[in-house]
Structure formats: structure tokens, C-alpha cells
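Aim 2, interim progress. The first record below pairs a target sequence with its C-alpha cells.
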Amino acid sequence: MGKKTGKVYVVGHKNPDTDSICSAIAYANLKKQLTGNEYTARRAGQINEETHYVLKRFKVDPPELLSNVKLQVKDIDIHKIEGVEPNVSIKDTWEKMKEQNVKTLPILKEEELVGVISTGDIATSYMDVYDNCILSAAKTQYRNIAKTLDGTLICGNEHGYFTKGKVTIAASSPELMEEFIEKDDLVILGNRYESQACAVDIDAGCLVVCQGAEVSKRLIKRAEEQSIVIISTPHDTYTVARLINQSIPVKHFMTQAPLTAFRMTDYVEDIKEAMTKKKFRDFPILDRHGRFKGFISRRRFLDVSKKKVILVDHNEKSQAVDGIDEAEIIEIIDHHRLGNIETMGPVFFRNQPVGCTATIVYQMYEEAGVKITPTIAGLLCSAIISDTLLFRSPTCTPVDEKIAKKLAKTAGIDLEQMAGEMFKAGSSLAGKSAEEICFQDFKQFTVNDIIFGVGQINSMNKEELKEIKDVLLPQLTEVLKENSLQMIYFMLTDILDESTELLCVGSNAKEYIIDAFDLREDTDKIVLKGVVSRKKQLIPTLVGVLQQE
């Protein structure tokens, strides 16, 4: 990725919770301090209200969104390069290539790419034995011819074009000249007056006078009357004959549109095939307005390094940021069951059966001997409060509780009070649609080809949970269809009562739960006493039943 090689994204799961966000921020900070390299926290989805409250409380900006980790053209080092206009001569183009030390040059008309020219095209223009009409066929401007021959225009319009006739050398007597020189030809000649006069008599289109030879005033006047261009050059006949084809405009030899060009936003994976088929050395890159931005060499395209990612708080592919298959996962820090993420090589994987990823991140600060600031302490402590429902969840371990209390001291917060404010912010319905409520803490799972989702809202307020149920229940079937899921479960968790009312939609969703929790067949409202954890209580019990299918 050229200059951008160093960056590593630290990112949690889609529909991130407070742990996912706070652990990513804290871990990126730790890695940066330990290595001095660029580690940046990102989020893989919308931040929920609870997390917003926490970030605001500790004056921390939310991480930027990482919508996917697929490589785009703009992630590669693009070779910025100056182009030339279509009418510029081959000679000037070659000079420009040498000056910039490049093998391909863009031909631009007002920033728009009209063609490309390579050293190979220029070599071809030399090695192919052209007939003597090439200069006029290519509509070469007189100004180009004069410049290429280091000459000056004695008369005629330098902006005019040589469009008819052939290139000839007047090396013989005027009698012989009349046999092979025709009207409109370009004639290369020396200092013999009679040859010059003969070319004017024949009404040639242009006279190129070599070795700075004089042209009489009378002849110049006649030439002007007949609109004949006269160019004087210091070079000899041989050099002029050798150089003159270099005055041809570059557009005559360039590879023209349609060109194989790519956009800045194209995904590398999508265009690799197109590249492999075309054997060009360089590929032009355009911005979204179609303006030329530079070249990417074929080698750089095929060698490009993947985006580097550290995953926190998840290790399931369905919960990871899009395009994870194309990224290089270098670390995973998690506290969930082992999912199905595959890595290219060995990675640093730390997975502990604790209530919260933040607990592990705290331990890593301690192990590295890095001091935790009050801000980071506040973020990590809030994550533990959130994930363990202030130590009420069965996922909570004595380690989580001990560390949370330590962190609360460093951050200067009261645990009970902070928990109350966080859960209140998280279960607030203000201005939210049913879908937003459903997805603010939602995870997707796959068991035996059954794809289902589980959402959860925690609250200390029974009334609020009832309101949420009234908003959600009529909409869940729609959510199910739109997201191609077979079942949705939604946990309305009462933190004080330590119980969950479970909403079930989808084929057999309710039956599986009745089976899993040994409930009565005619159960209408499903209330699971003592169940507050999606991770430790609901998912394992449900998965057990689904796996027997």
C-alpha cells in the first residue's frame, strides 16, 4: 500500500456495543504507545445511545466508520505524473518522459485522458519504415516542425498544419526536382538559390532550408504571396531528414480511448482479472469526474498489501466488518465462543472467559507496564459495566468486578450512578424507529444453515421495557424479511429483576425456545427467570437445541 503500509485498524463487530467501541479505542492507544506505529480505532456500524453517552462523558470522539476492509485503488500508491497535450511533438514527449523518468505518459486535453503513449510506441514510430506521407497524414503543425529542427520560421503561419503532400529532399538539379516534387510537398534543401526557386515555382507547401542558408528577400516575398512556409534550421540535410518525423504530434501514435482505466473507488479484487488479461505496464487512474489522477504500475497492482486489522470483542465472520476475507487479520482480542474466522497466517489470539473484552485490555496495559489515564480508565470501566450489567450477568467473573472497581477509582466515577445513567441512555426510545431499536445491539449467528439474529435491550425500568415491546413486536416480522433471517429473538432484559422477556419471530422460533428452556407447550409470554446474558445463557442453550436438528 505504498506510503500507507503502517496503518492498522482496530475494530469491533457490526452493531457495536460499548465494549466493542471502548476496547478498540483503548487497545489502539496501547499498541500505538508500545510500537510507535499507526494504530487507529474504527467502528463497523452505528454507535448506540449508551456508547454515545459514555464517549460524551469522557470527551472522546467516536471512531470513524470502517464500512469495509476491501482494498480500493485509492489505497495504493498512485504515481502522479504530468501529461502532454495531443498536439505536442514526439520529440517533446520523449524529452518529458526522460525528465520524469517514466515509461508511459498520459495524453490530456483539459485534464481529460484522451490516450497514453509508451516508450514502445515511440520506438515503433522510429523503427517502422514509414512512407514519406506520414507527416501530412498526421496533420503536423509547422510550429512543431520548426521546434523539432531547432529552427525558426522565416515566413508563413506557424499555427498552420502540414496536411497534404510528402516529405522530399532536393539533392538533385532543378530539372530532376520537377519530376518528383509536387505542389504542397515539404522540401528539405540547402543553399542553392535555383533549387529554392524551383520549389517555390512548383508551389511546395513548406521549404526547410538547412545549415542556416540564406533565402533571398525576393524569394521570401514570393513565398509569402503563395502562403508557403519557410523554416530555417542550423542542421544538415541528413540530420533534418532523421529528425523531422519526431515533429509528428503524439496523438498520431498514442493508444486511444477506450482505454483500460480504473477509478479511485474501484475495489482491487474486482479489477485484478481485467489487469491480468491486459499486459500493459501502467494503468491510468481517474477520479469520479473522469479526470486523470496518475498511473498505477501493473507490478504495484499485483503486489499490493492488504489492509491490516485487529479484531476486538468478536471472532465470527458474520459479525465482522465487510470484506474481512480480503484483509490481513493480525490479532484477535476476545471473550466469546470460538467462531469461524479463518486467517492467512498465525495471529496473536487472546481469548479469555471473562465478562468483557475491556477486562483483557486492562490486563494487557498492566502486563506492558503502561499507565492508564483517567479517560481510558473511564472507557474501560464503562465497557465492563455494560457487558456485565454491573456484575449481575452470569458472564461476570470476580476478575471483571475487581478490575472495574480499580478503574472506577482511576476515572473518578461512582459505579452505581454511572450504570444507571448508561442503561437509561441505552434504553431511551427518543426518536427511534423499531428497526433502529432492534439493531442497536444485535448479533447474527449461523447454526446448521439456520441464520438467526438476537437483539437485546437492558433496562432498570419495567415501564420502559413495556413501551419497547409495544413498538417492536408489530415490526419484527418485517425486519426478519428485509434482512433474510429465518428467526429473530429479542431480549427485553430487566436488570433489577434479573430476568428477560423474549420476543420470538420466524418459523419454529418459539418452539425451539420452549424446547431449549423446558417451558410448557402452551406458554404465551416467554419470560426467562435469571436469564440476562445473550452470550452465556441464551445462545449456548439455543445452539444446543439447533444442533440436534
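The second target in this work package is listed in the same format:
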Amino acid sequence: MHKYSTILIALLTSFQALFGQALNMTLEGSWDNTSYSFNDCWGYTDDFGNEYAIIGSKTRVIFFDIKTPTSPVLLAEFTGSFPGISGANSIWRDFKTYDRYAYAVADQGSEGLMVFDLSDIHNGNISKVFQSNSIFTRAHNIFIDVPEGRLYIIGSDTQNNGLIVYDIKDTPSVPSLMASVSLASYGGYVHDAYVQNNLAYCSSGFDGLFVIDMSNPASPNFLSFDESAADGYNHSGWPFDNGNKMLVAEEVPTGLRLAIFDISNSNNISYLSSFRDPVNTSGSGNPTYHNPYMLEDYAVISSYEDGITIMNLTDTNSPFREAHYDTHPNSNYNGTDGCWGAYPYYPSGTIIGSDINTGLYILSTTLPLTNTCNNGIQDDFEIDIDCGGFCNTCECSAPRDFVFSDLSNSSIQIDWTAVNTAVGYEVRYRESGASTWTTATTNINMITLSGLTPSTTYEFQFRSDCGNRLTPYGTSVSYTIGSCERSIELAGSQMSGIYVSQQFIRSEANLQIGSDVEYLTGDSIILENPFEVDANTDFLAEVNTPCGIATFTGQNEVLNFTHIAPSPPEQAFSLVVNKDENVFYLVSNDSSEEFFQVELLDKDGRPIQNSKRSTKSKLLKVPITPELNEISISQGDKQYLLPFK
């Protein structure tokens, strides 16, 4: 049973101060499934600025849209099942993101490595694009050295006393093995690691903290190590103070302090001090800290029975707890119940946490937490997971929204959406099934390719030149050359004339003249056939272009909005169902600016999901779910109920 309870959240917010559940933090939203037991969490921000949460249960990897923190929307759940691979029932799962991909492992079962494509997550679409257990079947953790484009598998069954390293720099969807290397002589088992620019800070359990140069993954170079005064189990750590210090949690035995190490000289690291500041000062025992993360001098820590705690480390001689939200209020510490994971790197300042028993928590804080990559450039000491996996993913990422036009039987023109801050682009292409690529570059968001084989399908991949780096290549796009009457997508200011459209969405739904219609890549809007436009009219259409006529040269941008002018509306809201794509469109015919609330209901009238939208967005695209029975719409004092057939 899913629990989306705004009443419960309101009550918790009202009483949390009385019971000491929160300090300088507020619960915005939550999600739980009482049949699940949860583990770690991670976050992702797409290049539109939308924010998402990833959380693990024993059997699943679960994705949420949290751009409205008070109303998290479940997008997808994936098991580890795959042809020839059984899904695991694992207490431990771990996730990281890189460019437009998410990576996942489990430390029980035989799922191996899973890769998820998040390129279309803003449309609610997520796909598992890779899974393999040929190199390892289980692993405790993963980490991504973003500047180097390397994925590290940590605590695996096949390299238990070492690290497995994959190259994901150019093709994130297909990790390429670089090395599986033993570190038995450098501390042995690695429980977790933080890696940047080939320097691996390895949390090696009771052996302590090790620094290893992984420039050559097949031949690691040991630099130094140290232990804390408590000599506990070095569980995980995160650097701060511009990379000069590292905060470490020592999970075992329970109740140990957080440790601070001096890592300014990687050849001679040293333990500095330790501290703790429990939320529950009246109970017995001390908190067990799990996973610490740093934003400048603030430590955001998943702290088991203390929930999420935020420590101020401005003065490392006198650290103190400045905020907390206790996901597991209790009077005595009993061990490792409560908050497993946290993620504080959203540009909005949102913080998420995962509680073992009660699921996803979405929180805000009054503290001035600073995303260190606020200028979109990796300059100074950046923590690299800002903006969902790459320091400047939010500013400069691989291009999207491609428009292919035949110029002849052997040449094509390709246009795409301009990428903010990109100084150029690179495209590589090959005939489908070929092993080698041909590469071409351009300094604008358009390219012409000639000398292609007629009536042949090609595979294309694109990436951006961000000035200081090249992005990974985006998801492959296929196109067949020289059909001469191919349908192509066009948008933006076009020349006047008569065009012939191919209608993918046909409906009796009507829209106000001059409405702004929000559409997603691949959608067609209701248009007459043929239709006529005036000069400089914005429109989206599927049109035919005869061979040899480059009708739409120099197109600068694929717009997010298009103007249409159909007949006057007959009803306030209409439905357009496209079962081939497993989606439906809710069309608003209201010209007012009043907000409306949409709830998707099952056959018992229970909500499946909801979202608040303005009527300025006239076309809302929603995935079809098996439970969907009807759509409830509230707008001011008006109620509408549309049956779903």
C-alpha cells in the first residue's frame, strides 16, 4: 500500500518541534510502501533543471519525480531480473549517476551491474539499457570519478580485496572494462571509496583510510594511509575544505564518533580529530553515523536512528549539529534502524533521505547550503556529483531533439536543439552493424553529411564541446538515408506556404485560438491536412521534404512551445488517448490562468498520482498505467471527472 498523506505530513510538521523531531529542517513530502524494506538513495537533476530521486528496496530500484517536493511522483520500479539473471533480494543497494545515466549494484544475489538511460526521464520514460554479471555478480558500492569518466566497482565478489574499473567516458550506456585489480597489499577489502582525478580514498574497514593512485588502473600506486583514534570500521568518507580534509564515518562498533583526516598531502594523510552530537540526548548510547556528504563546511549525514543530521564543520576544532530531521524518533539507540542514505546535491537545495522502514523523505532546510558547482564549471575543488552526476551537466550536456532532412539520396542535414554554453559539437556515425565510426565536427547546431550510402540505415551519436571538456556521447539515433519522402519534425519560425502534415494524434478535442501547447519530442499536434501558415509562424508538424530541397536550412532551435489555431472549445477538458505509445494527453480548453489539480484514480476511486498544472500548459502528457480508471480534475470550485476507456 502506497502512502501519500498530506494530512500526515501536516501533523508531523506541527508536532515535530514538540517532540524534537526536527531542527532547521522541514518535511516537504514522503513516499512509502509498507511491503518494502529500503536501503540507499541518490539524486539526479536533468538538463532541464528537473529533480529526481532514486531509492533502493530489497528487490527494486525505484525512480521518483520530485520537482514538486510535496508531491513525489513514482515514475518506475525495476527489479534486477534480466535474461539469464535472477533478481536479487538484497539488503544493500548502491547508485550513482553520470551524464544522463544511472548505475546500480546489489550486494546480494547475482544482478551484476545495471545501467539506466535517463535521457527521456522528463517525459516519464526510463529504460534499463545494460546489465551484465559476467565480471562480477554482486558488489557493495560503486563510485564514479567524473573528471576521468571511470566507474569503480567496490567490494565485489570477484575482486573482494580490490577494485574493478570501467571506462564510461565516451559511451556511458556500455561500460568497458579497464581493470580488475587486487589491493590485498594495500589494506585489502575496500568497503567504500571516493575517487577524483584518479586519486582513490579507500575506506578499508578496520584497516583504515588508504590513498591509492589509480592513474593506471591495472597498476595501482599506494600513497599513504592512517586510522582514527577509535580504530573503528572506516565505512565511508567525503572530502571538504577545498580537498584538504576528509570526514569519515566509522560504522562498527555502533556509537563511534565521526573522524576528520588531513588529506592535504596525499602522500602523508593523518588523523586529526573526532566528534559526535546526538539528537537523542536523553536516551542511552550514542548515534551510529552511516554515510557523510559535504557541501562546503556543512556535513549532511545519514545517521540511522538520528535520521538526517547536518553538522557545521566551519571550525573543525568545535563542530556542532546545526540541523536535523529524525526519520526514526525513539528514546533509546538500538543499533542500525532508521535513515540509511541521504543526498544533498540538488540545485534547489532539496535534501532527500531513505529510511529502512519508512521509505523516501524529501526535506528542506533553513541553512545556507551551497551547491559548489553553482557556476556550471569545474573550477576549484568540485565534488562532481552536483547537478546529477557531472559538475556541468546542467549547463553543458550532449545535444537532443534531432531533426533529419534528406538533401539527396546520399546526403542529409541534421539539426538539434542548441546546448547552453557549448562552443561546438561532434557527431560520429556508422552503418548499422559496422564496428568503426566516422567523426565530423561543427560549431553550430546543424551539420551536413555527404557521401552516404542510399537506402541504408545509419547509427548516429552526438556530443557537445563545452570548451574545457567533451561530454559523453548521447543515446544512439538511427536514420535511413535517401528515402526522399521521409517524415521529419520541424519547429520554430518557418517560411509561409502550404504544408502537408501526417497526424499521429487525431481527436475531437478542441483548443483555444492562440493557445500555448506544451509538447514533447516526437509528439504531433492536431493540424489540418494540408494546412497553411503565415510568415514567421511558430508550428510543429510532420511534413514531407522532396529530395534535393533543403527547405529548412539554418534552423536555430527546436522550441518548447508552438501556436495553433483550431476551432473554439466545446468542453473544459478533453482526453486524447494514444495506446500505441501507452500515453494519453489531457487537453485544457480553458483560457483562464487558474491552476488546476489532476488526480489519476483507480477503479476504487483511490489516487494513483497527482500533479498541479497551470492551464497555460494546454497539453499534458501522462503515461497510461494498468490501474487507471478515471481522471479527476479540480479547478477552483469546479470539479470534472473524465472516465478513462
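Confidence is low (pLDDT under 50) at residues 1-19, 375-380, 386-393, 484-569. This observation will shape the mutagenesis plan for the next reporting period.
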